[in-house]
Specification:
single chain; Oxysterol-bd; sterol binding; OSBP_sf; Oxysterol-binding protein
Length: 259
């Protein structure tokens, strides 16, 4: 249960590397669906995305429809959808993402914040509730997350605390984050810590893991199907900083997609 909670926090931590770059490619990458087009189609407006992946002993899938509200200098994003994580022993956890707001879209330093309550529901013994604290103008300690893991009887099995852009810790049982409970925090166990950025950061602030996802070696190229996204020329141009060529190639691909 605690490790599942850790997964939900790492999803939020990726927003911390957002930057505003010049020469941006218009629109967003299209999604290829390996299913009959007569039955399904990709939705651009509204933006609906879906995912499915499998590993040793687990499966993860979900879909999300993003609702947005523009406030002039900021935009609020409300994800609508459920994410599911299933283990091979039959244990299942489900949750929905919290609200995200991006500020200073026109002037100033661009930054984002996550806030709201996330319920991680399990089909067996434990469930978790995480509260993402909304950042205020005078807040000197932003990005805080507090939560509890409870059994089906409502008893607290673990208390979680930390920051979604830095690290998360936990203590067994119930613990107050304020006042006398601070003494127990010294005995907390580290659950997750954000990896250090690469020594030579890329123009997109990609992590060490993310920067390898588009890697294409000669031996790998021979094994990939022609629909693999790593073969997309517009994506390769974008990665290499050739924005005009990336935009032209992307428009060409989208026009062919509509034919």
């Amino acid at each position: 249960m605690i490790l599942t909670e850790c997964l939900t926090i790492t999803e939020a931590s990726g927003f911390d590397r957002l930057i505003l770059r010049s020469g941006n490619v218009s629109g967003s990458p299209f999604v290829e669906a390996l299913i009959p087009p007569a039955l399904y189609r990709v939705s651009h407006h509204p933006t609906i995305v879906a995912c499915h992946c499998e590993g040793t002993g687990w499966k993860f899938w979900g879909d999300s429809n993003l609702k947005s509200k523009f406030w002039g200098r900021s935009i609020m994003l409300e994800p609508v959808g459920v994410l599911t994580l299933e283990f091979e022993d039959g244990e299942v956890f489900q949750w929905s993402k919290v609200t995200t707001s991006i500020y200073n879209l026109i002037l100033g330093k661009l930054y984002c914040d996550h806030y709201g309550t996330m319920q991680i529901k399990g089909n067996r013994e434990y469930s978790c509730k995480l509260k993402f604290k909304e950042q205020s103008i005078v807040d000197r300690n932003p990005h805080q997350v507090h939560g509890v893991v409870q059994d089906k009887n409502g008893k607290t099995a673990a208390t979680l605390f930390g920051k979604w852009n830095e690290s998360m810790q936990y203590v067994n049982g119930e613990c107050s984050i304020k006042g006398k409970g601070q003494e127990s925090l010294s005995e907390a166990d580290l659950l997750w810590k954000k990896s250090k950025p690469p020594k030579f950061p890329t123009r997109y602030n990609l992590t060490r893991f993310a920067i390898t996802l588009n890697e294409l070696t000669p031996d790998l190229k021979e094994k990939l199907p022609p629909t693999d996204s790593r073969l997309r020329p517009d994506q390769r141009y974008l990665e290499n900083g050739k924005y005009e060529m990336a935009n032209s190639e992307k428009l060409r691909l989208e026009q062919r997609q509509r034919q």
